[in-house]
Amino acid sequence: MPGRTGRASLDIEEAVVSDEAGALRVTVDFSDTGHRRLGIGWAVDAPVPRTFESVRIFLVAQASRPARTYLGLVDWQDRASIQLPESLPAGRYAIDIDAYGSASWGDGRLDARGRSGWFTVGE
User: Which domain of life is it from (predicted)?
Assistant: First the structure.
C-alpha cells in the first residue's frame, strides 16, 4: 500500500513512559507522502495544559530490535513539521517524543515521553 495517509495516534495507556516521566499523546499527520513530510503534535492529557521548553523528536523503525533515530529539537512548541530523509527505506515507523521542562534536558531530566501509532513510508 503506497504511503498510508491520515493521522496516527496512540492512547496514553500505550505510550512509552519511564517511571519518572509523564505520558504524552503523540499524533502524526502523514498526508504529504510525496515530499515525505510529517506533521507531528504532542500534548499531555491533564486538566492543566503544560508547555515544555524543549522536545527531542526521534524516528523509530518497526523491527525486532527498534532503534531510535534523532530527527530534531523543537523549543517552546507543541507541534513540528519534519522532512523524512529521501534515503529512508520503505517500512513501518513511529515517532517518539522526549519532552523537557525548564532547560532540564541538559541535566538529563526527562519530564514526559510518548510514541505515536505506526505509519507506513513508501510501501
Answer: Bacteria
Domain span at residue 20? 7-121
- Quick check: 87 pLDDT over 70? yes
Write down the number of H helices and E strands in the chain: 0, 10
Contacts of 94 (CB under 8 A, 6+ apart): 8, 10, 28, 59, 60, 62, 115, 116, 117, 118, 119
Question: What is the torsion angle, in degrees rounded to the nearest 10, for the CA atoms of residue 108, residue 50, residue 113 and residue 89?
Answer: -110
pLDDT over threshold 50, residue 3: no
Q: What is the mean pLDDT of residues 33-59?
A: 84
Please tell me the distance from the alpha carbon of residue 107 to that of residue 110, in angstroms, as a whole number.
9
1 within a domain of the structure (yes/no):
no
Domain count, the chain: 1
Indicate which CATH number applies to the domain containing 96. Answer: 2.60.40.10
